[in-house]
Amino acid sequence: MAEANVAVDHNEFSCPICLDLLKDPVTIPCGHSYCMSCIMSCWDQEDHAGVYSCPQCRQTFIPRPVLGRNTILAEVVEKLKKTGLQAATPADHYAGPGDVECDVCTGRKHKAVKSCLVCLASYCETHLQPHYESPAFKKHKLTDATRRLQDKVCSHHDKPLEVYCRTDQQCVCLLCVMDKHRGHDTVSAAAGREEIQKQMGKTQREFQQRIQMREKELQELREAVASITSSAQSAVEDSERIFTEMIRSIERRRSEVTEQIRDQEKAAVSQAEGDMERLKQEIDELKRRHSELEQLSHTEDHIHFLQRCQGLPVTPEAGFGPRISVCPRCSFGNVRNVVSELKDQLENVCEKKMAEIHHKGY
Length: 362
Hints:
Layout lengths: L24 E3 L5 E3 H9 L7 E2 L6 E2 L9 H12 L31 E3 L4 E3 L1 H9 L8 E3 L18 E3 L4 E3 L1 H5 L7 E3 H109 L4 H8 L23 H28 L2
Antiparallel strand pairs: 1-2, 3-4, 5-6, 5-7, 8-9, 8-10
Keywords: Coiled coil, Metal-binding, Zinc, Zinc-finger
GO molecular function, one term: zinc ion binding
Pfam family, one: zf-B_box
């Protein structure tokens, strides 16, 4: 029966410590697998503490686990070796933008996983192995990979900063405690962080309270702005309505005054036209009489002249009405004055009310 071809990721069979294919693979209680020599060397460095941990998940074990060769895993690894599969560095092990680069790699740099405060250098998984395997690096202090290693080392003694000086509120090394900071109130960096973090927690709670208070004030201001906007819109609408009514009222009054003036004009013109007609008739009558007198004055018959004079009026006014005045009977000056006075009064009232509106506001 032909064997099925299965795609295998070599990372699944690589030791997380040496990054090579597993040699004498062993599986520790947490389930992770390592080369026997790699995990033994790593745990040899932890003998002094009596607590042993998994380099990957950091699960601890007490006492030191007894390791046995994982034969099934060893057989799988041997088959992979026979197929010619070579362990290669995955692309994601290379340093990218924002990653800390390994200080030992040449050419294309690998991504650093740890930094050593004694060496003041950062290492990838491969170049970090001597720190796990060689007793010479047993006392070196490893931290998560970081760029600013110098900030974690004492500038006076080139030792790792491990102590917090409460007196001077700064991190110092163990030699500083015996030297410049002798007699100061000092604690471990972990204890110092715990104290400060407690204070930070209190400060954070105060910030949270202040944030909540300010958010409440902000909400109140938003509601006030909404109320002001709504009130202003209502005031504008009411003002527009009232001013429209005022304008309509003034328009009505203007129409009434105009109508009254036109009625008075019509009456005065009608009366004047009647007087003019009567005057025309009187003029015609006077002309007729004047003509009769003119003709009579030229007659040569004395008897006829005397007889005719007896029937003529003695004066021109005889038989006619009173004299008609030619002065205008309606000048409408009073109306003009009253309307002008009304305008002045309205302007004065408007100025006073506008001042009240400006003073009182909303």
